[in-house]
Design goal:
3-stranded antiparallel β-sheet, 5 helices, alpha+beta, 195 residues
Length: 195
């Protein structure tokens, strides 16, 4: 189990981004708080969806498995910080990688466009027998029937361990935040005018 912060957004640029709208929004009771919190939460959830798409563009993994490993800590009026975490097991069961039983063993599809690969070793050790049973992929430890162990695939979140990828995602999240702050301010002001 591991927790890894992928993206962190806070409110320190909101007043600069809003410019002249800041004074108009500030005149509404709790207006600035409302605008900033909404913008932070919308930006971090949009970033989660974009991270999921980026992972699925690279790896042949189902969307639900990607989203199950991510957690959004939403901003509140008291704590104006929104964070996207990668939580839990960083690898998922091998069956989710499209495992298929063949005459020669089990094949999986890890990277999109990479072709199917036969599972023959784990952590550098040759596996004497790999098979699919009860909806999971198992491997024998020795040439004997038992013991067996359940196999897991590679960590697709390792892709986000690269500093340049994390920096690009953070920059993209900040761009989304800037756009959302202006949109939320305009929405709040239009609601105030019609009330």
């Amino acid at each position: 189990m591991a927790d890894k912060r992928l993206v962190r957004l806070d409110s320190h640029h909101a007043a600069q981004v809003l410019g002249e709208l800041a004074s108009r929004v500030g005149s509404i009771p709790r207006g600035m708080d409302l605008v900033v919190v909404r913008a932070l939460n919308r930006a971090v959830t949009a970033t989660r969806d974009e991270v999921s798409r980026a992972i699925r563009a690279e790896y042949a993994v189902p969307a639900r498995d990607v989203k199950n490993t991510m957690y959004v800590r939403k901003a509140t009026r008291a704590y104006k910080v929104a964070i996207l975490y990668a939580m839990g097991k960083m690898s998922i069961p091998l069956i989710r990688w499209g495992a298929r039983q063949t005459k020669k063993g089990v094949t999986v599809l890890i990277r999109k466009g990479g072709g199917r690969k036969r599972v023959v070793s784990k952590d550098g050790q040759k596996l004497p027998g790999v098979f699919v049973a009860k909806g999971e992929v198992y491997a024998r430890q020795t040439a004997r029937r038992t013991p067996i162990r359940r196999l897991y695939g590679p960590s697709f979140l390792a892709y986000f361990g690269k500093p340049e990828v994390l920096a690009a995602q953070q920059a993209r999240a900040e761009d989304v935040f800037r756009n959302r702050v202006i949109a939320e301010a305009n929405y709040l002001l239009s609601k105030e005018l019609t009330a």
